Amino acid sequence: MLRLLCFTAHPDDEAGGFGGTLLRYSERGIETHVVCLTPGQAATHRGPAQSDDELSALRRGEFLASCKLLKVSSAEVLDYPDGRLDRQDFHTVVADLTRRVRQIRPHVIMSLGTEGAVTAHPDHSMVALFATMAFHWAGRTNRFPDQLQNGLQPHQTQKLYYATALFTMPGRQPVSLAPTTAVIELEEREIETKIAAFKSHTSQAPLFGFFEEMVRKRRRMEVFHLANSIRPRKMETETDLFAGVEDAG
Ligand SMILES: [Zn+2]
């Protein structure tokens, strides 16, 4: 059984950044897992929520609804503070994500890119950094050895991808994206489900119009950057994140 693990920062990142890809691999029989680091309690758009706690609860539910549409095998929202991932203790968060990598034992990990995606949101950048170190350190016996005392084993994931883009946002400060090395062309049905998953985030309804128009007109693909590979290799353009992946363990 092949497994795919996706690390995100906020509820809605899974649909906006990875929705078509998550759906495709799930329908191909691959186990898909999403771990979202914050419940999104600092969002500008807050629906009927009167407090951060109410918004967190609301967005956790929206996240589960979205993941259900995307046929995600397991979906988890951690409890780190939205907007403050850059103030968290690096070692603690990486340990937390490393434990999940060792439990889930993915063959491929996806996360946002270090630039913070086209929005350059610092939380997105921090997820990339945390996920990158969890990818590397989960396989090493001398990293977080305390986790390896009750049957949990080191786990070396075969590939790490950052979501990236082939455009930047006009009128915004500069952002340097990771070059695209993998292109997932979405089918019509995958686009519709991705949009529906995004719209499960009803507290974020003011974003729906822009998102839907952008996806339908200009973003009919999801693109990625292969950041690390278990096998040394030259860069080549891929159309399958599992290309060359071996189903062992
Ligand atoms: Zn986000």
The pLDDT mean sits at 96
- Sheet bearing the most strands, described? 7 strands, mixed
Which value, in Å, is the CA radius of gyration? 17 Å
Estimate the global geometry from the Cα principal axes.
Answer: globular
The residue fraction in helices comes out at 25-40%
Strand content: 15-25%
Low-confidence stretches: none
Order of helices and strands: EHEHEHEHEEHHE
Structural class: alpha/beta
- Total E-strand runs: 7
**Number of helices, counting only DSSP H or I runs of 4 residues or more:** 6
Distance between the termini: 8 Å
Kindly report the spatial arrangement of strands forming the biggest sheet: 3-2-1-4-5-7-6
Bound molecules: zinc ion
What is the fold's blueprint, element by element?
Elements: E1 3-8, H1 13-27, E2 31-36, H2 52-69, E3 74-77, H3 90-104, E4 108-111, H4 122-137, E5 159-164, E6 182-185, H5 188-199, H6 208-217, E7 221-229
Parallel strand pairs: 1-2, 1-4, 2-3, 4-5
Antiparallel strand pairs: 5-7, 6-7
Helix pairs in contact: 1-5, 2-5, 3-4, 5-6
The protein binds zinc ion.
Zinc ion binds next to loops.
